[in-house]
Design a protein that fits this description.
Elements lengths: L6 H11 L1 E5 L4 H13 L4 E5 L5 H12 L4 E5 L4 H10 L3 E3 L5 H9 L4 E2 L1 E2 L2 H10 L3 E4 L7 H7 L7 E4 L8 H6 L5 E3 L6 H5 L3 H20 L1
Parallel strand pairs: 1-2, 1-9, 2-3, 3-4, 4-5, 6-7, 7-8
Length: 219
């Protein structure tokens, strides 16, 4: 039986990759194609959002086909039923656009990591008191990289994963501001390219983004 990565190992893997691809597509086949494309470009961490039809089935299929190569998560998790389905399908981490204390507590009690969407210092403090270790700053585009620096004053060492409006043009700014990793959706998993079946475009974008991440961390 395949060993289940611990929450610390999942977080370390995401930090090492530096990017979590937020996969939000109109069909299961599009989601599968998008994941394979960004993986070919070097993005190993993905979250299949529950806005995708049959999200748990996609997660199960990816877990079976690419589980060893992927850090596989579920996104837009807002209910206990979704969380249960995602974990049963093989998701290693859960992500939400908001902070639901009951849902966070339930997931952590299963021994699995939950990365809630937070924005204010009060939300961060509430999430940390529940045991959260990685915090999705959403929507990050509202205040930009400088806000990450501000948050690290009262919360030194905090693991922040800004999400929303991030691409190769501004990724370095977020990393230099102290981002733990970047959540990247439509700028990476481009719907127009998906509709056109242009998987190589997604792979090129992933490679470009990962090159920016590597350069920002090196410099």
């Amino acid at each position: 039986m395949e060993a289940v990565r611990s929450p610390a190992q999942v977080a370390a893997g995401i930090a090492d990759c530096g990017v979590v691809a937020v996969v939000r597509t109109e069909s299961a086949e599009d989601a599968l194609g998008a994941v394979r494309a960004v993986l070919a470009g070097g993005v190993r961490a993905v979250e299949i959002t529950f806005t995708v039809p049959g999200a748990e089935h996609i997660i199960a299929r990816l877990h079976g086909e690419l589980g060893g190569d992927l850090l596989l998560g579920a996104g837009t998790v807002t209910t206990r039923e979704q969380a249960q389905a995602a974990l049963a399908a093989g998701a290693e981490f859960l992500v939400s656009p908001a902070l639901d204390p009951e849902l966070v507590s339930w997931t952590l009690a299963q021994g699995r990591p939950f990365y809630p969407g937070v924005f204010t210092p009060s939300e961060i403090l509430a999430a940390r008191q529940l045991g959260v270790e990685v915090f999705k700053i959403f929507p990050a585009s509202r205040l930009g990289p400088a806000y990450l620096r501000d948050l690290q004053g009262p919360f030194p060492g905090i693991k922040l994963m800004p999400t929303g409006g991030i691409d190769a043009a501004n990724a370095a700014d977020y990393l230099k501001a102290g981002a733990f990793a970047l959540g990247v959706g439509g700028k990476l998993v481009d719907r127009a390219a998906i509709r056109a079946g242009d998987w190589e475009a997604l792979t090129r974008t992933a490679r470009e983004l990962m090159a920016v991440v590597a350069q920002a961390r090196a410099g």
